[in-house]
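FAQ: What does the model actually see?

It sees only this:
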Amino acid sequence: MSAAVLAPPTTGTGTVFLRAAGAEWVRLRTVRTTWACLLAAAVVIVGLGAIAAADEAEGTATASNPVVSTFAGEYGVLLGQFGLLVLALLAVTQEYASGSIGPTLQWTPRRGVLLAARVVVPTVAVTVIGVLLALVADLVALLIDPELTLPLGDAVAGLARIAAVLVAGSLLAVGVGLLLRSTAAGLATVFLLQLVLPFLMQSFNVGWLADLAEWLPGTGAVRTLLGEPDSLSLGGALALLACWSVAAVAAGSWRLLRRDAG
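And it is asked to produce this:
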């Protein structure tokens, strides 16, 4: 009588994802660059928020004409987000620089699961940390200028807009990093799209350049946070951010799933 051949047990996709996400989280929090990026983001977000609050203290905020302190976190995140976006980008490019992407793909051969973990972990980390830092900036603004207010509804709405910008920016950074597989090229691309080109193209007295700048993700982030430019509605800005994020992640996913690790 021949012995029955038992198939090896298969591990569920959910379990593999949790293991991959856990590995991504450990790798993210155990490298020095993560803490350097967080320190830079904290200094910029809270510092700019405090400066904005000090400037507002010289303005029109009074008990009869209150100003909501959410502007502090929004101004802080406008520039401080770049420290967090660098963190998201490095989370997916460092292994290509060190050559350790090969062993990672061997340990997690299901590339779709690895992709999901590699997208979700830095995006969630960046968003949570950025929202918390923005809240700290809002509270510091209250201490600097007691005439400011922070109603719960306004606080939730402001932090929700900040979260949307951070989610979109993180997905853009992760997608660009997966696509280019280079930290330097990824940083240059993200900074150009999010900061340099939107401001530079609108500074020239050329109509089509200004129109083109309206379609860049940096313009959507500014509109979501500060309400500028007026020509772009909040819904339009969120849709713009979503389109850029989906396109970046789709392009990065294609390269991770279809191309080798080189």
